[in-house]
Amino acid sequence: MAPPHTFLLAFLLQLSLVALALQGAHPAYDDSLLCNAEPAEISFKPAKLDEYPSGRIIDITHAYRADMPKFMSADGIGNVARLHISMANGSLYNESELKINVHTGTHVDAPGHMYQEYYEAGFDIDNLDLEVLNGPALLVDVPRDKNITAEVMESLHIPRGVRRVLFRTLNTDRKLMWKKECDMSYVGFMKDGAQWLVDNTDIKLVGLDFLSVAAFDDLIPAHLVFLKSRDIILVEALKLDGVKPRIYSLHCLPLRLVGAEGSPIRCILIK
Ligand SMILES: *[C@@H]1O[C@H](CO)[C@@H](O)[C@H](O)[C@H]1NC(C)=O
Ligand SMILES: *[C@@H]1O[C@H](CO)[C@@H](O)[C@H](O)[C@H]1NC(C)=O
Ligand SMILES: *[C@@H]1O[C@H](CO)[C@@H](O)[C@H](O)[C@H]1NC(C)=O
Hints:
Number of strands: 10
Radius of gyration: 25 Å
Bound molecules: 2-acetamido-2-deoxy-beta-D-glucopyranose
CATH topology of the domain at 107-270: Glucose Oxidase, domain 1
Largest sheet: 7 strands, mixed, barrel
CATH architecture of the domain at 107-270: 3-Layer(bba) Sandwich
Strand order of the largest sheet: 4-8-7-6-5-9-10
Helix content: 10-25%
Structural class: alpha/beta
Distance between the termini: 58 Å
Shape: globular
Strand content: 15-25%
Number of helices: 7
């Protein structure tokens, strides 16, 4: 039988747990970790982090600004999140609704985007392979005087075995994602460039710095080449400003939109 002081200890421990619970503190936290800040100490200027102080994380996702370009439009995307219950109107809380074209801003395409039979068969965003969307990725600069043709692809000498490539183009230099009016002269893949990639590389994730990986002149044909096998994932409108060309650890997570052929996506690079 346990000596009596064991029971006493257990009883005292119980008491102190009850006391902590009454204070609202979980016993796993010691007092020094608890935040007792007065409301006045809370900063009212939330930081917007594109570059993190550690320099380890680079956010390559565009923020949804109302004046972000909308594909084939001069108007910008407008407000995608709108308050439908508002404290300004006397409610006890604020609540917004999201209304967004799934190909807005930094986003990903599913095979059903341009193949009706894939759409009907359910090759949607929820089927995208997170193993492809996350892993080592190479950021490359492409020549600024051409769209991405077979010749350009060949000149990049991307080694076999590289599975994820982020292509930075003239679009970044021209700051096209920062202009409200969508500039249809953006750089992207031509059909033969897409075909060269499919035939001669192991790339399964293609990232580009404007709203479409395909140049407007080859908008549909280049998408069809990429999406045909259903194992290449297209990530569009990445924010590659000021990022050094090299290998990073890429992390991209789309929303689990069942039945949708596109989705907003959050992508970061970790050095
Ligand atoms: C607040 O109330 C006004 C007047 O009824 C209405 O026009 C407006 O849409 C409301 N806004 C929100 C966010 O609820
Ligand atoms: C709620 O939204 C209103 C604008 O309608 C804003 O003035 C207020 O600060 C918001 N409150 C909170 C708690 O975010
Ligand atoms: C790329 O193609 C578009 C048409 O899709 C064209 O307007 C643009 O000038 C081309 N860019 C370059 C650098 O050749």
